[in-house]
Amino acid sequence: MKKIIFPIVAIGLMSYTSNAQQKPSDFNTEIEKWKKELVLNGEVGKPCREDDNWDKWQEENPNAYFGLEEIQSMEYDFNSDGIKDGLFYFPAYNCVGGNGIGSDFALLVYSNNGQLLTNKNITKTIQQEIKYSFEEKGIYDIYKIILTYKGLGKTVVGDYSAWTNNDASCCNSFSGTFEYNPIDFSLTTENKTNSK
Length: 196
Prior knowledge:
Elements: H1 2-20, H2 24-40, H3 54-60, E1 66-67, E2 72-76, E3 85-94, E4 102-112, E5 115-119, H4 122-136, E6 142-152, E7 156-164, E8 174-180, E9 187-193
Antiparallel strand pairs: 1-3, 2-3, 3-4, 4-5, 6-7, 7-8, 8-9
């Protein structure tokens, strides 16, 4: 009797373990939903035109400034639960010929107690934390922060540029690097003051 029960238990455990692994199709489903939401919400339009015909692109995407670009990805089990998590992002390319720039658009997909969850506000969260870090130093006039993602490990890492109210659009006062911990929501930065 014990010989029959043991293989059944082992098969059950093997099945549970394999189901716990994140599948690429899980990520793909979340990415496709995210892309659709970005377009439907007017945050981005179609990809920029290869012929740089900005007027035509604006005709086709009247409510957008940035285009949907190729998604880049980084995967790492940052919460150490044995299931890979993913950071998916693309740069904010403006498609209308202006000089406006923006932060990378990003989606964090992670597991929590067997559920697949997403954070679509990861960029805004990190921008706000960087702004708070300046306020802790007595700098209260930061009005724009641009992020570029560089890596995912135990933390989300990248570069940032920050503008004060007195900065021209060409010339930000501050730049540096950031590390954001998506588990405890802590942020560390290395800042430098840019010469004007």
